Amino acid sequence: MSATRRKLLIDTDAGVDDAQAILMALQAPDVDVIGITCVMGNADVEQVGLNVLRILKVVDRLDIPVFIGCNEPLLGDKKPTSDYHGLDGFGDAPDEDAPDKSHLQSEHAVMALVRIAKEHEGEVTLACIGPLTNVAMAIRMDSKFGSRFKGCYIMGGNHEGKGNMTTSAEFNFYSDPEAAYVVLNQLKTPITIVTWETCEKHSLPWDWFKEFQSSQTPCGIFLSKIEKNVVSNFYQPFFNQGIDKQYEVVDQYAVACAIFDDVILDEAAVYASVELRSDLTRGQMVVDWSNVTGNACNVRIVKVINMDLILEILKKIVS
Questions:
Q1: Percentage of the chain surpassing pLDDT 70?
Q2: Which one of the listed residues 11, 13, 17, 44 is annotated catalytic?
């Protein structure tokens, strides 16, 4: 682990997996989360902001600024939110003492992204764990935006053509394909992507998750509460059919790659873009594995993750 402190800026749509990822960053000993920007995805954007405040309250970090951003894709073709995380993105788990919207910043998330990148030029890593609308808009606002970061880590897309929203598109890229296209092709900083297939191949044993969820620490109780309906509505039907379903870890991997050394065991530098026109494959990340286009590599795809280290990192969230 680096001896120098790392500055991290998180762009999120704050579902349950985002909550674990954000807590991971907040508890990392050498990481300063300098801001969290919110985008529509698992819920409408204002609800996403309220979800982030709930996360921050658990670890007494409401001092971190939270900014509300885009609530529609670049072209306005907003998709229905996934019901995987419930209507509010947090499993519809009530919290009577949740912080209200007065804790949210008045500055728009896109403006905040542009400003913070300028103020900390060359010092900040950007972690994107939701649709990429805010980031694409920031690129349009400031042509030098991307070049101001140390790097960008994205959970999104796919490198084997497998989707989780359509037959060929992953949720974050499917939610705003144009934004994903802009970011991959125009963000002038090293981009590391943890794709859907990589996450799927690194799912965790259910017995491990049951132990993880049983923690009675404040973070453990909070995570168990917001994930209760996900377990009942999504995982339990598999077990009822005798299917050994593993626990899916997604956004956590992107943030872990951004802030911890030695998490990535294998990767591939390639050129990748996003399909925008096909009815069958819109939103799919298309990877030029054979360098047919002759384009320079623009992304690093994470293929193998150090699971021993990941399990250690995840356990610390609830310990």
A1: 98
A2: 13
